[in-house]
Amino acid sequence: MNQLAIYGWNDKLDQLKQESTYNALPHGRVSVVHRTCYEVISENGQFQCELTGSMMYGRSDFELPCTGDWVIFQPFDENKGIIVDMLPRERTLYRKKNGTVADKQVIASYVDQAFIVQSLDDNFNVRRAERFMVQMQEENINAAWVLNKADLDFDRQEIEEQIKHIFRRIPVFFTSIRQPETILRLRESIPEGETVVFVGSSGVGKSSLVNALCGKSLLLASDISLSTGKGRHTSTRREMVLMDGSGVLIDTPGVREFGLAMDGVDSLEEVLDISDYAKACRFKDCKHINEPGCAVLEAVNSGLLDAKVYESYLKLRREAWHFSASEHEKRKKEKSFTKLVEEVKKRKANR
């Protein structure tokens, strides 16, 4: 029998369940999402579940259950069920859906800590890590940076100089599956009952890291490609695995792009370590572009603030503002359409 406490079930979740119309039914956590099927871990084992019609067709894509969600289901037959309700999400990692203006794609929910995984080769990218950090801060998810394949030749002093502003904000781990002591340090940072998600590009070794942390092969990890010298990425879905005596891991497919999906820009200054400078600006609504008395610009000109970090701030701020404005306009149109539908229904009812 599964003890759901090790998967993160707690008194707050139990209270949320009691508010549901279906509180007498069993609950569980979504461990894997297939196209129309959800693997749900419950106190009575694992169930293969589908959605009710009202859930499947009455919600947008990002509102459907995802890996990490807590759901209530109606069991039937042996180890099968129908998901009838979903508990409200918390600490959900989103990204902007590729090819859209304001649509969101959910990666995982009820995430306590998110590991940004990069490898110490040409995949290393400070600006991409900043982008992940901003989105995680928006959802109150603790971030950590894992620089994998530390057995490769690299200039550690140069790397640490490039990421010194990030070192001050989040933990940074240098790891290699060929160096067990580095895996142990990473494992010790994951308390029992916590959920962590691994995100990053393809080929950085996320699945191999998960296997090393668990001490056994749970996720497929391909051989090294002869043409590129990199590991071929094999994760094609978000999958939850349990670590013995530790937390819950969610591995994710590699992402080429990670667009910001956030309504505000308040967290940007804090994440990029420029908030102290911003507080010293002459004007409270300073945009840090060309205003007189801008302490941020003064810090850039004097070399106290890295110009590349400042440029990253401006780029991410423009992106966040664009998404927020597009999202607001989208909600406005949806509200107007809903109002129009209700008026049409009233007219028909009065005939």
TrEMBL record:
Domain EngC GTPase per the UniProt entry, residue ranges: 109-256
EC number: 3.6.1.-
Principal localisation: cytoplasm
Keywords noted in UniProt: Cytoplasm, GTP-binding, Hydrolase, Metal-binding, Nucleotide-binding, Ribosome biogenesis, RNA-binding, rRNA-binding, Zinc
SUPFAM superfamilies: Nucleic acid-binding proteins, P-loop containing nucleoside triphosphate hydrolases
Gene3D superfamilies: Nucleic acid-binding proteins (2.40.50.140), P-loop containing nucleotide triphosphate hydrolases (3.40.50.300), Probable gtpase engc, domain 3 (1.10.40.50)
GO molecular function: GTP binding; GTPase activity; metal ion binding; rRNA binding
This protein's GO CC annotations: cytoplasm
UniProt entry tagged with the keyword Cytoplasm: yes
Quaternary structure, from the entry: Monomer. Associates with 30S ribosomal subunit, binds 16S rRNA.
Name of the protein in its database record: Small ribosomal subunit biogenesis GTPase RsgA
UniProt organism field: Bacteroides faecis
